[in-house]
Design goal:
single chain; 404 residues; mainly alpha; 0% strand; globular
């Protein structure tokens, strides 16, 4: 019986680490809205901060970040899943899906710890659970992947958006803020004990992961998983020159949809009924646009992109670290900034924290091959303690190291 083993460094695509690094940055910029206050989840969508005039900064986050970077990460998740599956098949590993299931189960474990003991806004549980559905599509034809992706994305989105549009014709649907929930969150996160915070955190996770919410999340995430899988299977981003025309078509098409669905709503007041279309179709398109753009620009901007790639090589560790930093900065058990920062100040936090993460990631990767959680993830998958410390000949940060 053949055993699975981690993918050799020489086979990795360096732009993937940079794309992951961008995704981690973008996810943090959006997550800061929830770390800062309850308005992003419990508000009516008119003001993510609850204080100050959101205006320009809210539009920037909404157009370029919201739903775009977790979708980019989902694209890379599907892309990576296909590469891992092909690697297992190439090595004639018995029951390759078993290894993928084990990988998802370990990720689910990380997500549960993160969601209930650090921060409710976890995406790892979502990716792991929906990842099990992705396994059903590994051997499907390309046309099947495209058809399922389009149908899953469009049908529920169009139906729900149509209902919201009809509801808006009978009256104002923008006054949906949950005042009681906002007050509870402000009290517990802003002035509560550790126990209060954990209790509020659990309640917020349950609220944001209600069955109907999770169903719509699946309709949002699974299609981009499938497109990532499609790109990896066809090697479109493995050889940019060979598939340049194909990639250019995807790039132009995704850019058009990006502009129409992410920025377009602002030309007619950015109504609430359009928000799901903006996040699903717009987020889907912007993720593909960002991924192809990073791949195209990697060789031209290699020096800058390699810096961002250090964060991407430790994506899981940096994602969890961002949550720890967010809790420390904003909750009452730390610096207590919950609900106190202006939009510009909140964004500044992200712009300060991320360069620090680049430095920490570079420093760590000079000493170790993988990030701490990436190493633990792999060790749990293979049920053995894998070597991680760099030996003298490996000193320096390998451009090819990745967490695929």
């Amino acid at each position: 019986m053949n055993n699975a083993s981690p993918l050799a460094d020489s086979k990795r695509l360096p732009w993937i680490d940079t794309a992951r690094g961008f995704a981690i940055f973008g996810i943090f910029m959006v997550n800061l809205l929830s770390f800062h206050g309850p308005y992003f989840m419990y508000g009516n969508g008119n003001n993510f901060w609850g204080i100050g005039e959101p205006g320009f900064w809210q539009a920037i986050i909404d157009i370029f970040f919201q739903a775009s970077f977790y979708s980019l990460f989902a694209f890379l998740f599907g892309f990576g899943m296909q590469i891992i599956y092909e690697n297992l098949l190439a090595k004639n590993v018995d029951a390759p899906r078993k290894w993928l299931v084990r990988r998802l189960l370990v990720l689910l474990g990380f997500g549960l710890i993160h969601a209930f003991f650090i921060w409710y806004g976890d995406i790892l549980i979502t990716y792991a659970v929906i990842g099990f559905l992705l396994l059903l599509f590994l051997n499907r034809k390309n046309v099947t992947l495209v058809v399922w992706s389009i149908c899953i994305l469009l049908v529920p989105t169009l139906l729900y958006s149509s209902l919201l549009f009809l509801a808006s014709s009978f009256g104002d649907i923008s006054n949906l803020a949950n005042r009681a929930a906002i007050e509870n969150a402000n009290q517990h996160y802003g002035a509560g004990s550790w126990g209060d915070i954990l209790s509020q955190n659990a309640n917020d996770w349950l609220y944001s992961n209600q069955v109907i919410n999770f169903i719509f999340t699946t309709f949002n995430i699974l299609p981009i998983f499938l497109i990532g899988l499609l790109f990896a299977r066809n090697k479109w981003l493995h050889d940019l020159q060979a598939y340049r025309k194909t990639l250019q078509k995807w790039w132009i098409g995704s850019l058009i949809l990006f502009v129409l669905f992410k920025a377009g709503p602002y030309t007619f007041g950015n109504p609430l009924w359009f928000s799901l279309l903006q996040d699903t179709i717009g987020g889907f398109a912007s993720a593909i646009f960002y991924a192809i753009t990073v791949a195209f620009l990697y060789d031209k901007l290699k020096k800058i992109f390699r810096l961002i790639g250090y964060v991407g090589k430790m994506a899981l560790s940096n994602y969890i670290l961002q949550s720890i930093i967010g809790v420390t900065l904003f909750y009452s058990i730390g610096f207590g900034l919950y609900g106190k920062l202006t939009p510009l100040q909140t964004i500044a936090v992200g712009l300060i924290v991320y360069p620090v993460q680049i430095i920490l990631s570079y420093w760590w990767l000079k000493k170790y091959k993988r990030g701490p959680l990436e190493w633990l993830w792999r060790s749990l998958i293979y049920k053995k303690k894998l070597p991680n410390k760099r030996i003298p000949k490996d000193e320096g940060v390998s451009e090819q190291t990745s967490n695929i």
